[in-house]
Amino acid sequence: MSETSREIRLASRPEGQPTEENFELAEVAVPAPGDGEALVRNAYLSVDPYMRGRMRDAKSYVPPFKVGEVMDGGAVGRVVRSNNPELSEGDWVQSMNGWREHYVTDGSGLLPVADPGVAPVSASLGVLGMTGFTAWVGLTQFGKPKEGETLFVSGAAGAVGSMVGQLAKLRGLRTVGSAGSEEKVALLTSELGFDAAFNYKDGDIGGALSEHAPDGIDIYFDNVGGDHLEAALTRMNVFGRIPLCGAISGYNEEQTPPGPRSFLTVLPSRLTIRGFIVTDHYDLYPEFLAEVAPHVKEGEIRFLETVVDGIENMPGAFLGLLDGQNTGKMLVNVDDDAG
User: Fold this and answer.
1) Per-residue pLDDT tens for 246-283?
2) Cα–Cα distance between 31 and 43 in angstroms, integer?
3) CA-to-CA distance for 30 and 19, rounded, in angstroms?
4) What is the distance between the alpha carbons of residues 201 and 82, in angstroms, rounded to a whole number?
5) DSSP H or E stretch at residue 309
6) Among 173, 182, 207, 76, which residue's Cα sits nearest to residue 130?
7) Residues in CB range of 37: below 8 A, 6 or more apart
8) Most buried by CB count within 10 Å: which residue of 5, 7, 177, 261?
9) Using an 8 Å Cβ cutoff, are 334 and 311 in contact?
């Protein structure tokens, strides 16, 4: 094993769209585990939209990244050296110790990894991890789907959006999704089972919704905000539900964008709009796995991954995610021997 390890640090806080200059690749000595500790070699690192918010020095539901220090995030890795009886060499573990190749742990805060008989270990960061759980929580707990209803999900070819649509189809809903290219639109309808999809870059989101959801929208799962939320609000059915998962369209804005002009439709339509943070609902994680893992194993839920190789390419993968270059879950592989 190499005596050095690489990590990505926040070099500076971005103003507007982040650039490669906001990140620093550093080389450090591989840490040695002490008594009761284990050394883990990361294999896959998660790339997620919420990380953009952590690059700001602002109070939020999670602390901001610190300039000059390692960024962190979801990761799956393998124990390579252990002085902890609970962790054996070769064990796969999941942590929030991403953006680095190695780390030392005493075992606290680690999560199990997906059963390799169900899905590859990378799925623990996607369909069977926080991504899939986010889709499931938002849809089941706040979307409250009923068979025969219509669901619209923005960012439908992304990691969360693609899961939302498939979960909704399993519950008997009509599903409509937006995506940023004709290739992604075709993927949604031909491979993921969406009833309809459209390219939002064509410029007429409202017209597309009127065409593909002529009877209105019962659930809008919002990953994008902005013009998507504006268009959806005026097409919601009475007592519709809107789980607010993200608003990636505004993540690089330095000034808070104004609210949707159509917000007053919430009152006469008696809409329920609920923002949620998935970490508030970890008590439901076993229920999520019990429902979703069998569908994944049987191929009834497909999971898509965009994998970039090399920790040096982590910043580029993150910038690509913000620009919609991924299909499904964006991951970075930092171990050539990863299974």
Assistant:
1) 887 666 666 667 778 888 899 999 999 999 999 999 99
2) 17
3) 28
4) 51
5) strand 305-309
6) 76
7) 82, 83, 84, 104, 105, 106
8) 177
9) yes
Q: The whole model's pTM is what?
A: 0.90
User: For residues 29 and 17, what is the distance between their CA atoms, to the nearest angstrom?
Assistant: 32
- How many whole angstroms separate alpha carbon 221 and alpha carbon 155? 9
pLDDT at 29: 96
Q: Are the beta carbons of 99 and 24 closer than 8 angstroms?
A: no
Report the C-alpha gap between 240 and 221 in whole angstroms: 11
Is 290 exposed, middle or buried, given 0-12, 13-18 or 19+ CB atoms closer than 10 A?
exposed
pLDDT given for residue 252 in this prediction: 64
- pLDDT for the residue 247: 81
d(CA 164, CA 133) in angstroms, rounded, equals 10
pLDDT at 91: 95
β-sheet bridge partners, residue 40: 79, 103
Alpha carbon distance 47, 51 (integer Å): 8
> HSE-up of 249 (CA within 13 Å, CB side)?
18
Q: For 14-31, write each residue's pLDDT tens digit.
A: 998 999 999 999 999 999
Which residues of the chain, if any, have pLDDT below 50? Answer: none
Structure tokens at 202: 């064509």
The H-assigned helical ranges of the chain are 51-54, 130-137, 159-170, 182-190, 205-212, 226-233, 285-297, 314-322
Residue type at position 314: M
- Among candidates 108, 84, 81, which has minimal Cα distance to 96? 108
Residue-level pLDDT at 246: 85
Under 8 Å between Cβ of 270 and 242 = no
The pair of structure tokens assigned to 137 is: 């929580």
> How crowded is residue 14: how many other Cβ atoms within 10 Å of its Cβ?
17
Cα(314)–Cα(320) distance, integer angstroms: 10
Residue with the two structure tokens 């009509």: 174
- With tokens 């926080």, the residue in question is 130
Tokens 């990863």 -> residue: 338
Q: What angle do CA 302, 303, 308 make, to 5 degrees?
A: 150
